[in-house]
Amino acid sequence: MTSKPPLRSLVLASFGWAAAGSGGQFLFQLFALAILARFLSPAEFGVVSAAIIIAQLSQIFNEFGIGAAIVQREQLLDIDIRVGFTLSCLFGGIVILALWTSSSTISVLLGIPELTWVIRSYTFVFALKSFSAVAESLMHREMEFRLLARADTISFALGYAGLGIFCAFIGLSYWALVVAHLSQSAIKTGLILSCRSHSKAISLDMATVKSFLHFGLGQSLARLGSFVANQGDSFVVAKVLGVERLGEYGRANQLVVIPGNQLGAVFDKVLFPTFSTVQTEKDRFGLAYYRSLGIITMLGMPIVAVLYVVAEDLALVMLGQQWSNVVEPMEILSLSLIFRLVHKISDPTARAAGAIYERAWRQGLVAVTMVLGAYAGSEFGLIGVACGVLFATVLNAFLMVQLCSKIAGEDFNSLMMVLSPGFRLGIFTYILVLGVQYFSRLIFESHLGVLAVTVTTATIALGTLIYLFPKVSLGRIGLDLMGYAWTVLNLEKRFGLRNLTI
Questions:
Q1: Residues with Cβ within 8 Å of residue 482, at least 6 apart in sequence
Q2: What is the pLDDT of residues 427-475, one digit of tens each?
Q3: Cβ pair 330, 256 in contact under 8 A
Q4: What number of CA atoms fall less than 13 Å from residue 250's CA on the CB side?
Q5: Residues 440, 434: Cα–Cα separation, whole Å
Q6: Cβ distance 251 to 323 under 8 Å?
Q7: 35 phi/psi in degrees, rounded to 5
Q8: Using CA atoms, how far apart are residues 290 and 414, in angstroms rounded to an integer?
Q9: What is the pTM of this model?
C-alpha cells in the first residue's frame, strides 16, 4: 500500500494561485474604493451597504450549504451532483420570490425608501449564483484555483472596478454600486460555467436529498450565526445611527477587513478542500491546523500593527477629508483583524472535520454577543459600536480555536507556543512603524507622504530584521514555522531565496 503524500504537497499547487487571485482582487478593491469614495457620499454608500446586508443574509438560504457539502464529501457520485444542482436552483427560486415580495417591507423597517428596487435588483445575483454554485464548488473540490483566481480577478476588474467607476462618473449615484455588483457576478458566472461543466439533469433522490439537507442545515445555521456576527453591527448602525453613519462605518470596516478578508480567503479556499481529504487522520489534521494558525498569526500581527498606527493617514488618503469620522472606529476595528484571521483558519478546519453543529451554536452565541455589544456601544456613536465588535470578535476566535483544538487533540500550551512568534513580530512591527511615522511627520506635511514613507521604510526595515536576525525576531518556533512555509512554497528553488536559519 502506497503512503499518502505530505499534506504540504496537497497545498503547494493551490496556495500560489489562490494568493494571486486574492492579491489581484485586493489591489482592484483599493483602487475602486479610492475612486468611488470621491464620487459617492456616505449616504449613497449606506443605501447599498444596507442592501448588501439583506443580500448576504439571503445568500445563506440560497446556497443552504449545498456547495460546501459537495466539497466536503469523501466520495462524490454523479447523483450527488444532479441533486446538488436541483436543490441549488430550487432554494434560489424560493429566495428570489421571498426577496421580491418582501423588499418594500424591509425598506420600511430600515427606514430607507430606496431599498425596495435595490434589493429586487440583487435577485439577479441569486439567479446566477444558483445556476453556477455546483460548478464553482466542483472547482474548489478539484483545487482549480488558477481558474478561480482568473475568474475572480477578471470579474472584479471589469465588472466592479471598471463598470462601477464609469457609472459613478456619469452620475448614477448609488445605482453605480448596484451595477458594479451585478456585472461582477454576471462575468464571474460566465467564466466559471465556461471552465467547468457538469450534468444539469433534475434529480430529487430522497436518500441523497436527506444527506444534503442534514449537512446543509448545520452549515446554514453556522453561517447564519456567522452572518449576524459579521453584519449585526451594521444593522444596528443603520437602525440606530442612520444611513449616513452606516456609510461611514462600512468604509472604516472595509479598509480594515479588505487585507484580512483577502489573506484569510487564501487559507479558507485551500484549507477546506485540503483538510477534507485528511479529515479522518487526526495527527496530520492537528499538525496542519496548528501550523496554519502559527503562519497566519505571523502574517497577520504585523498587518494589525501597521493598520493601527497609520489608520488616520490611510483613511484620509484613500477616502478623502470628508471621511474623517472613520478614523477612530478604524483604529479600534484594526485590533480585531488578528482575531478575524484566526477565525478564518479555524472555520474551514471545523467544516472539513464535519463539526457543523458544534460550530453552529458557537456562531449563534457570538452573533448574540455582537448585536448586544454593538447596540450597547451605539450610545457612544461609531466608536462604541467598534468596541462592541472587538469584544465579540475576540470571543469568536476563542470559541473556534477551542473547538478545533478539541478536534485536533492539541493542548493549550502547544497553542500558546505556536502563536507566540506572531505576537513577538507584532510588537516589533508596532515599535518600528511608530518610530518611522514620528520622523516622517517631521519631514512631510501631507498624509500621502507620511503614509508612503512610513509603510515603505517600515516594511524594508522589518524584512531586513527578520532576514539578518531570525532567532531574535521569530524565536525557535517561528523559525520552524517559517521553514515549513518556505518548504511548502518552494521559494528556494523558485526564486533562489535561502531558508531562514539561526
A1: 298, 470, 474, 499, 500
A2: 889 999 999 999 999 888 888 899 999 989 888 988 888 878 777 777 6
A3: yes
A4: 28
A5: 10
A6: yes
A7: -75, -50
A8: 8
A9: 0.67
For 374-498, where are the E strands, in sequence order? none
**φ/ψ (deg, to 5) at 172:** -85, 10
| Residue 41 host element (H or E) | none
For residues 195 and 139, what is the distance between their CA atoms, to the nearest angstrom? 9
Rounded Cα–Cα distance for residues 27 and 33 (Å): 10
Compute CA 223 distance to the chain's CA centroid, rounded to the nearest angstrom.
13
Q: Hey, what's the torsion of the CAs at 285, 288, 289, 292, to 10 degrees?
A: -160
Write the burial class of residue 160 (CB in 10 Å: 0-12 exposed, 13-18 middle, 19+ buried). buried
The Cα 266–Cα 18 span in angstroms is 5
Measuring CA to CA, how many Å separate 9 from each of 141, 220, 267?
Answer: 16, 31, 15
In whole angstroms, give the CA distance from residue 39 to residue 41. Answer: 7
Question: What average pLDDT does the structure give for the chain?
Answer: 80
Mind listing the pLDDT tens digit for each residue in 72-120?
Answer: 777 788 888 888 889 888 988 888 999 999 999 988 888 888 889 999 9
* CB 111 within 8 Å of CB 69: no
Compute how many other C-beta atoms are within 10 angstroms of the C-beta atom of residue 469.
11
| Residue at 151: amino acid letter | A
Phi, psi at residue 370, to the nearest 5°? -65, -50
CA dist list (Å): 347 to 49, 265, 301, 390, 449: 25, 11, 19, 18, 39
